[in-house]
Amino acid sequence: MRVVAYMKRRSLPGLFLLLVLLAASSCLPKPPAESGGINITLYGFSVMKESLEKAIYPAFAAKWKREHGEDVRFTSSFAGSETITNQILQGVGAEIGIFSIDRDPQRLKEKGFVTADWHTGPHQGIINKTPFVILVRKGNPKGIHDFADLAKPGVRLIHPDPVSSGGAQWSILGIYGSELKLSEKQSGEPDKARALQTLQAIWKNVISTPGSAREARTTFELGNGDALVTYELEGLLMKQANAPIEIVVPQATIFSEHPAVVIDRNVPAEKRQVIDAFMQYLWSDEAQQAFVKFNFYSVTSDAFNTANKEFGHVEIPFGVDYFGGWAKAYPDVIEKIFRDQVQRRK
What we know:
Elements lengths: L1 H8 L2 H14 L6 H4 L2 E8 L3 H20 L3 E8 L1 H9 L6 E3 L4 H8 L15 E12 L19 E2 L7 H22 L4 H12 L2 E3 L4 H9 L5 E5 H9 L4 E4 L3 E11 L9 H10 L3 H9 L3 E2 L3 H5 L9 E3 L7 H17 L4
Parallel strand pairs: 1-2, 1-3, 5-6, 5-7, 9-11
Antiparallel strand pairs: 3-9, 4-7, 4-8, 4-9, 4-10
Helix pairs in contact: 4-12, 5-6, 7-8, 7-14, 8-14
């Protein structure tokens, strides 16, 4: 009765318009979930942004569309590696994480967010790498030619915060390990006392500790400090943007290695296929060449790396394995040496 009464109160033109609007609404675009689209949520450490958003995402989306007829979209968040790990632990819905240091996904595994062992994947889960270098102002007015020069009086150093930034922890290992390597080359034995003294002297010159490598770069770009220790790719991106800086490649320096990991707890069964496919894509020739284009080193092909003529020459390269891997490097160097003997005594 109510329907009949309501219809009696409506004019015929009004009813016609209502029916037209109802019919038209069924033709409106549907949200991705209803139209077969897929969204992948990825959290990455700060300097992954350009290579993913400008190359990796669009190339994979086009490939998946060709092969499966579905649209793939990505939602990203970028910050320091320790920061994104803490965010995932606090409940953000990241389905994939790309981290600066292997210790971060290990923390997620211990809390049940990651159940698979990423080390069993290609290249032990590492998708790319890059050496740590020093950025200085145009003309190198402070005469900085190696890590030890950062300890000179009057040098103002920008360095990301080791509490939040994986890149900062790589940098600490790079500086400390460089002195071990150089002293070993000179005397046959690594001189731990010399390495500690150099790290202490350098840290006294740190004037700012931004939360991530990218934030540290921004601080340096704004004119703060005389030098910045960072990933080589950050310096190359700045040079390509015609920034008035120079890149100093230390004689001995560390190559950082970056793992990609599925956050298993957050992945619904219906998305597992596309997420696994994206993970495998990261080691494809297409993706590895894209990383090189954006100044990361490929982990699959030295031939790809030679294509980037901007990469600097590192005379004595080393990795975290020099310290026994992250399981030993973090407690032995980051905590017992840097935190307890450098940071607390500054």
